[in-house]
Request: fold
Amino acid sequence: MPRKLLIDTDPGVDDALALFLALGSPEAEVVGITTTFGNIETGAATLNALYLLEFSGHPEIPVARGARTPVNGACRTPATHVHGENGLGNVLIPAPLTAPLRASAPEFIARTVMDSPGEITLVTLGPLTNLALALELEPRLSTAVAQVVVMGGAFRVQGNISGTAEANIFNDPVAASRVLSQDWPLTLVGLDVTTRVVLTPDHLQRLRQPPHRLGEFIWRITRVYEDFHLRRYGLVGLYAHDPTAIVCVLDPTLFQYEEALVAVTLEGREAGRTVMKPLPPESLRVARHVPKICTDVNAGQVIDFIQRRLAR
Ligand code: BDR
Ligand code: CA
Reply:
């Protein structure tokens, strides 16, 4: 039986790759997409999500538009220098033929999970605002969800938006703190592992051979993102942050984990920093679940997994 995934995303170039990967994997059934700000503002993220679904031949998958700002209403600047002015590497895309649901992302998340208790895996590829709002709306979410997999955090490595913070957590530290301290089955896929999964120009070229529509589209949308990695990190290739989170859902054996509580710095110079806290002794624990943090990855096999699925 495929895993039912509800994906919260801010597409975004690596988000687009992650969606293609999930849609191309027989182990997954994407039951819905919710959108958020981050790489791009929420309106554009929603249009991108609708278009990516149409492009992949899945216009029937529902899309719900999410939060436009962090829970405290602060302003956030989209990462257009990373993902292009339109979030998809400045590749012009037609207006989608489909429209988002009337329900908001938090409403849709709450309803979808409560309608199928124990069946839905929530995967977040952007800031955690929609999830925090869904929890507020429906506190029973934490017992009804199958799993929560978050692309976010930087534990033993540097941040990517500041010296200490990863972008998705930085963009809404208050929401992240609520989501990451919730007693539910949570896995964190942070920069500790995602920066080890590098797609090189050669990998991306191979996706174009023999020539096909998806490989060509991926090549075009990754030009700006690849260029950013060269300028910023001197890296020839790109970090596959969000696709790595999807692989973690579909083949968790490719990762190693540590169990720890997670603290998020809410403000100041280190806002958005994630720190592992030791667990209390088992006899004193009240929580049923302990967060699993990815600390190591079989990067070669993750890249193979991504390559095989995107070449289908
Ligand atoms: C995360 O931030 C976004 O720019 C990417 O899409 C990814 O979700 C990496 O820090
Ligand atoms: Ca993202």
Observations:
- Residues 3-310 form a domain with the Inosine-uridine Nucleoside N-ribohydrolase; Chain A fold (CATH 3.90.245.10).
- The mean pLDDT is 97.
- The chain has one domain: 3-310.
